[in-house]
Every structure is written in C-alpha cells, then in structure tokens.
Write a structure and sequence with these properties.
It catalyses: (6R)-NADPHX = (6S)-NADPHX; (6S)-NADHX + ADP = AMP + phosphate + NADH + H(+); (6S)-NADPHX + ADP = AMP + phosphate + NADPH + H(+); (6R)-NADHX = (6S)-NADHX. This protein has about 450 residues and is of the alpha/beta class. Helix 5 links the parallel strand 7 and strand 8. It binds ligand NPW and adenosine-5'-diphosphate (ADP). Ligand NPW binds next to helix 1, helix 2 and helix 3.
Length: about 450
Amino acid sequence: MHALLPTTTTLPLFDVAASRRIEARALAHSPDLMARAGLSIAKLALALRRDEGPVWVACGPGNNGGDGRVAAQRLAEAGIAVHLSHSPPERPALVIDALLGLGLNRAPAPELLATMAAMQACGAAILAVDLPSGLLGDTGQPAGERAVRADHTLQLLTLKPGLFTGEGRAHGGRLWFDDLGITPDEAASADLLGPAAAPARSQTSHKGSHGQVLVVGGAPGTQGAARLAARTALACGAGRVYVDLLDLSADEAADPGQPELMRGTAAELPQAVGVIGCGAGAAISDALPALLQRLPRLVIDADALNAIAADASLQALLCARAPASTLLTPHPLEAARLLGCDTVSLQADRLAAAQALAERFSCTVVLKGSGSVIASRGERPAICASGGPALATAGSGDVLAGWLGGLWAQQPGAPAHRIACAGVDAHGRAGEAGGVRRAGDLISQLAPSR
Ligand SMILES: NC(=O)C1=CN([C@@H]2O[C@H](COP(=O)(O)OP(=O)(O)OC[C@H]3O[C@@H](n4cnc5c(N)ncnc54)[C@H](OP(=O)(O)O)[C@@H]3O)[C@@H](O)[C@H]2O)[C@@H](O)CC1
Ligand SMILES: Nc1ncnc2c1ncn2[C@@H]1O[C@H](COP(=O)(O)OP(=O)(O)O)[C@@H](O)[C@H]1O
C-alpha cells in the first residue's frame, strides 16, 4: 500500500466492469483478497487515526462492507477500540467508510444517506474503502444527491478513473493504493498520466531545428491571451514564435514586453504549428477556413472552438483534416457547445464526452477542468491527475495552448495524442501550488520542466 500522487509514471486505470473481471479471475487463485484488503485498510487506519478515540467503521451490505468488517477485526486484534455501526460513537478518532464501493448501482437509499451525513458531521477524518460511498467509479460523479467527501481513499486491486476526474478529485481526498498482490491481466481502460520526457535538443541544433509556432488570436481587448500563448510557446523551446493579432496595425510590435516574438501570418508560415483562437473573439470566424485548410498541425482553443461549434461548414473542414493533426482544447462549456449539450450532462461523464468529441471531429481532444481528459480516435483515453485550483484563473488555458504548440513544433512527427498527454501533464504539475497562480507566473514555472 502506498500514497499515489504525484505519480512518477503513467499508471493503468480500470473501469468498474474491468475491475470486476480482474477481481473475478484473481479470486480463482487468490481467494483471500478480502483478508488482504481488510489488513491493508487496518494498517492505513492505524497510521491515520488522530488520537485514542474509537475508530468508527460503517459497513454496507456488499463486499465493500466485508472489507470494512475485516479491517474492524484486525484493528480490534491490535487493541484499538472499534465502533462497528451505522451511527457514530462519541468523539471518533477516524471513520472508515465501507458502505458502498464498486457495487454502487443507484442513488444511495435514505438510510445510507443519513449515515453518510453523520460521517461528514462527526468531525473525524474519513478513510474511504476503495471509493467514497455514493461516488461512481467510472465517472467520478455522485450517483445521487450526495457522495462522501473523504479525507483519504484507499483504492483496492485497481485504480478507478472516477477518482481522477470531475467531482472525484474533490471527493477522494488523499489517494492510496494497494493492488492486493494482483497484476491486472487485461488492458487498461484509461491511462493516468505520468511525466513525459522533454523534447531532445542536440548540441548542434539551431533555431530552425526546433520548429515554428504561429499564434492567431488576440482581438482588441484580449490580446493578452494570444501573447500569453506565444510567450509560452517560446518558453517551451520552439525555435521561432510568431503572432498574428487580429486588428493590430501593421507597424505595431507583436508583444512589446517580449522582443523575441515576431509577427507573421499563415500564408507566410505554411509549416508552422497553429495555435488559434486565444482571445480571438468573433473575428476568428473569417480566418478559420484558411487556417483549417492550410496549417498542417493545429491547436484549436477558445473562440475558434465556439466559432466551429456554430458553423457546420467549419466542422466539415475540421473533419477533413489529416488524422492526428488537430488538437482541440475545450473547457466544459466549449465542449458542450461543440457536442450540442449542456455542461451538466457533459460533466456527468467526462471520459465519454471527450471520446464523443474526438470521434465526431476526428481530432485529439483535451477536455479541460479538474482531471483533464485526453481522447483521440483509436487511442486509449488518458486522465491528468496533476493540477488543481491554482490553475483556475484567466489565461491558464492560453498558457496550455501555447505549451502544446511549443511542444509540437519541436516534435513534428509526434501524433496529437502524445503531445496532448505530455503537455497537459506538464501544465498541471506547474500549477500544483496552493492558492491561485497568475497565468504569467505559470509560464516560468513550466519552463524548468523541459
Ligand atoms: N470480493 C473480494 O474479495 C474483494 C472485494 N473488494 C471490495 O468489494 C467491493 C465491491 O463489492 P460489491 O460488489 O459487493 O459491491 P459493494 O460496493 O459492496 O455494493 C454492493 C451492495 O450495495 C448495494 N447497493 C448498491 N447501490 C446501493 C445504493 N445506492 N443504496 C443502497 N444499497 C446499494 C447492493 O444492493 P443490491 O443492488 O444488490 O440490492 C449490494 O448489496 C469493492 O469496492 C471493494 O471494496 C476488493 O477489496 C477486492 C477484493
Ligand atoms: N480546479 C482545477 N483543477 C485542475 N485544473 C484546473 C482547475 N481549474 C482550471 N484548471 C485548468 O486550467 C486551465 C483553464 O483553462 P481555460 O478555462 O481555457 O482558461 P482561460 O480561457 O482563461 O485561459 C485548463 O487547463 C484547466 O484544466
């Protein structure tokens, strides 16, 4: 058993159906899985309980409750006061939430909701067994009106995608994992991203070796967005970075605060990676047909996504692009517009939504937000576990778009999916500080990760 995040490698995630298959096969040769699970929970509980008070263990009707009962037995054998009940003891030292795990299949019944509320109110830290009760393992959404907000979750046997995206990040608390000695014997349902290697830079390389990025966007009043993206592409190591600011007069500098940036257009730079849409406003619509047809690799963000959502002819141009050449970076509202749904239903299953977008537009999609999801046709989806609310500030998405463009410029042969996985993870790690990080600061935080 070990703490999980930050992860130093990419890890396999298994949805509920896959976890059940793995469990069923493992039980055939290791019938003592529940004993292993219970022991592991008891060990972690011993380390986490805050004082000499009783450990409250609340067990449900299935095997999740079975794990909890074994843990209670182990704790009692170790001389710890254990309170095995659906109602709280006086001043519990820790709560073990073993009500519902993988088997959650409907909104929790009222009596379970009452126990969940009592757990939350009792003042002790909550250790959830496998999943916080009421949280769906595939999507990270509560099945009903509420799910337990745990302080710690010990995932057992497999890592479930729902703990890493959507509401899962807010419900799981600190994440722990015990594989119970079983190596999964089927392919993962999704990847949990680890860090990727920075693009190689040969001793004899020159600026022409590291590609070109062209940022198109920045309508009057929102030019900062395009400049943030351009500065980030530069910090990422792209050989040359150009900006095409909408409505900028011919004699103005690309970015007076960043003299390395140059002005350019798609017509002049047909090999550049386009990063298009940042702060672009409605004016991007007119430029989009040429950009979609002309530039061999595109990162499409913000207003360019909104323009595409509103125009079937732009959607057709997008779908006609070469495979693995286009990367969309919508936040949930932009993604909902592209799919023609609302954000609540989109957020209810972020993995499915990202995959639906990737299929519909034949693109790689980064569905941003807590636990960003990366999906591409024919690829296993990935979830980014790094990042946090420090990133919830204007401009951090522009920085992501610029970083993706900068990475892609330096790795022209790489498919969009690989660039997205590497870039989103690096961006998240750079934004793991507490509080709020200004988007401009994020750029300098990203640069050392190259
Ligand atoms: N077997 C092993 O050795 C191992 C097992 N492991 C552990 O087992 C867990 C999975 O166990 P599980 O399959 O029994 O499912 P679990 O989460 O206990 O729930 C099922 C029960 O809850 C009920 N129920 C469902 N929804 C409900 C609701 N909303 N409101 C009320 N009731 C509801 C459902 O009722 P039913 O639908 O049948 O009426 C059924 O009775 C897994 O998460 C892990 O902890 C691992 O440690 C690996 C080793
Ligand atoms: N709570 C959070 N946890 C993790 N990542 C977050 C969180 N809030 C925002 N982010 C990340 O910050 C970025 C915000 O992008 P976006 O909404 O497009 O911002 P902007 O348009 O202002 O640049 C995305 O990469 C998103 O995943």
